[in-house]
Amino acid sequence: MDDLKSQSHGHIVMLPFMAHGHLIPFLALAHRIRRQTPFAVTLAATTLNLRYLRSTTSPDDDDSGIRLHELPFRSSDHGLPPDTENTENLPLSQIGTLFHASISLAAPVERLISNITAEEGRPPLCVISDVFFGWSVDVARKLGTKSIAFTTGGAYGTLAYLSVWLHLPHRSTDAEEFSVPGFPERCRFHRSQLHRFIREADTTDQWSKFFQVQLKLFLASDGWLCNSVEEIEPLGFDLLRKYLKLPVWAIGPLVPPHMLQKSSPISPNSRSKSLQKHTGKVFGVSPEKCLDFLGSHSPNSVSYISFGSQNTISPSQMMQLAIGLESSGKPFLWVIRPPLGFDIKGEFQPEWLPPGFEDRVTRSKQGLLVRNWAPQLDILSHSSTGAFLSHCGWNSTMESLSQGMPIMGWPMTGEQAYNAKMMVEEMGVCVELTRGVESQIEAEEVKRVIETVMEEEGKGGEMRKRATAVMEQMRQAVKEGSDDDKGSSLKAMDEFVRTILGDSTNGTFSFLQVNHRS
Ligand code: UDP
Fold it and tell me: Signal peptide: which range, if any (predicted)?
């Protein structure tokens, strides 16, 4: 049946970058395409990344019709330790090496597309690649198919990331603040929002040599898909379209469907099972224990603290954060990893925290420390969780906003500082605590920010109201319905389909009206 469908309707090849924060939204997009269109989907990645993706899927997903294709990659050929296929737990210098090594995937991707073309008698409809795989634009063109970028970030953050790399605007001034091409003057950026390696980039370093080349290639693609929602980032989408001069489709949020339901009908236990599949990770504390802890606190009272899948903070920051959390007297659930300078996968040492800290907060039920990995979706969707101290990675941002949860920002790298800036200045759902791993933070400031965000009225109350409005917009965007009635993200997916089918009319394809998997 699937073969017949792919022969009659077409095939899409998807190429995620080698990082968990990219693999998960790619898989979610693959599912969305399978649900909303009749196309065959092949998702291609290296062996260990495919193993990770398989560990995140449930037996129900076997029926999804997504084909997983293995791309050969030997990390030791590129000066990386054996079995290094993902940014997880890699030091920064080796992440740079992995970026460059990823270009070697061009040859096996070319073979994959040629084989599909030979088997099906025509090339795939398009290749959807991570924005870090600019080389795929040339491969697609050479093999007669369309190339589509998929940015796993939001529109505003993607534009800032792209423009800062392509223009290095901070290098033309000594000032702390500078303007970025593509943004109006009022949106000036600050040097502290740039990661050290972008601040120091001068076009000859390994980072510039990768990003300037790979990102630029995507300016000649056929369009961009974006894991965001038109209504929550109107400025970002307007600016990104003007800058790219290409179609940009807002098809997000790519979070699990139960996160977008009004009130989840699923019991805590079944929710945590679905989450375990979603992350494919071992939790530091069982999901049940996290839910019990949250259940012992009142609505909107607990701060959730997590810096994403691979970050940690400096030893002095960790100490001040702990003191500030305890002195706030407010409950918290903290996903904690060894601080910078220590083996992030190693054993957690009590001396990294104030003496007796964990015992005290555990006994008083003020805090729960979860080593390394927590069931984030369960935590964010629990009614006791009231705010998220986050590194503002885009997946965490979407997950938090899908629950109407205000954010205390602590951006670290990538486009995270731009996400935080957008959420502070445009959305009004975030207050920034600090930036990066080099900053000095004071416990007093931690306490002050938590108190502000947790206020029922005042600034905290206003942020919560705005976050709730964003949540509603996200839910509307994926609302099923007839052509006129359906949400903007579903309409955007239809428009994307028309583009890859080469249809310039506004007519609707009969298969767009049915959810072919329902
Ligand atoms: N995550 C999780 N538990 C953790 C830490 C992270 O489930 O303890 C998940 C989180 O829900 C999100 C992803 O990991 O889906 C992190 O992605 P994000 O884009 O926020 O940050 P990145 O890891 O790419 O920096």
Answer: none
Would you mind telling me the total number of residues written for the chain in this entry? 518
pLDDT cut 90: percent of the chain above it: 83
Task: Select from 388, 399, 370, 401 the least CA-distant residue to 469.
Answer: 401
Cα 80–chain centre separation? 25
Distance 227 CA to ligand 1 centre (A): 15
Give the closest residue (by CA) to ligand 1 atom 11.
376
pTM across the whole model: 0.93
Q: How far apart are CA 230 and CA 211, in angstroms?
A: 26
Question: Would the CB of 403 count as within 6 Å of ligand 1?
Answer: no
CA of residue 482 to ligand 1 center, whole Å:
34
Answer whether 373 contacts ligand 1 (Cβ < 6 A): yes
Residue ranges covered by each domain of the chain:
2-156+221-252+480-514, 263-474
At 90 the three-state DSSP class reads: coil
Specify the CATH number of the domain 2-156+221-252+480-514: 3.40.50.2000
> Measured in angstroms, how far is the CA atom of residue 381 from the centroid of ligand 1?
15
- CB 335 less than 6 A from any atom of ligand 1: yes
CATH of 263-474, one of 3.40.50.2000, 3.40.1490.10, 3.30.200.20, 3.40.50.620: 3.40.50.2000
Cα 396 to ligand 1 centroid, rounded to whole Å = 6
| Whether the CB of 369 sits within 6 Å of ligand 1 | no
Name the DSSP letter for residue 426: I
CA distance 168 to 164: 5
User: What is the helix, strand, coil percentage profile of the chain, to 5?
Assistant: 50, 15, 35
pLDDT of residue 65 exceeding 60, the answer is yes
Measured distance CA(388)–CA(261) in Å, rounded: 20
Ligand 1 atom closest to 376 (CA): 7
The per-residue pLDDT for range 403-416, each reduced to its tens digit, is: 999 999 999 999 99
pLDDT tens profile 112-160: 999 999 999 999 999 999 999 999 999 999 999 999 999 999 999 999 9
